[in-house]
User: Fold this.
Amino acid sequence: DAGITQSPRHKVTETGTPVTLRCHQTENHRYMYWYRQDPGHGLRLIHYSYGVKDTDKGEVSDGYSVSRSKTEDFLLTLESATSSQTSVYFCAISEPRDGGFPLHFGNGTRLTVT
Amino acid sequence: SQQGEEDPQALSIQEGENATMNCSYKTSINNLQWYRQNSGRGLVHLILIRSNEREKHSGRLRVTLDTSKKSSSLLITASRAADTASYFCATVQGGYQKVTFGTGTKLQVIP
Assistant:
């Protein structure tokens, strides 16, 4: 799947604990994105990155932070997990090509906060 | 609130019929894209239309864009059971390529 690996694939954690999700790409794409998907909401953008150390907030960034210290890795951290952050998290990458800008998605991480 | 909203939320049609999904968005865009998702897997890119284009075709897909109304539609012609999936529009905005998605349309094609 376009050289994108999300880890872990599944995680159960307790309220108040920190959690880090990892997105790793082998495509050397400049742009990386973190989304969460919940029933009735589609995909909502959490944070995105347009280069190493360059990140910006999305629609639902409260309670989340990100880091991108190298091109291939984009980390999403929940500083203190809450039950409302139970969701499926998707990472996506992209690079402008021939006037197009398709996103390629990872297989998702299912996070449950108890 | 989300940038895009899709309509209808769910659509059920017979195989061979056409399916039309609509997307409305709120702010100016660089381009608009449509994606498909099967059963909670990652999304797959279908087609992109630039802000200066009005219509685009790809196989059985036809996309229109009306920037004055901030809306787009996706038409799938001669639908097949394998087209059963959720479909999402996505808008690309700004110089840093912020990409936000609509709420999706769940399409069921009945054999």
Remarks:
- The interface with chain B takes residues 1, 31, 33, 35, 37, 40-45, 48, 50, 54, 56, 58-59, 88, 90, 92, 94, 96, 99-108 of chain A (CB under 8 Å).
- The mean pLDDT of chain A is 94.
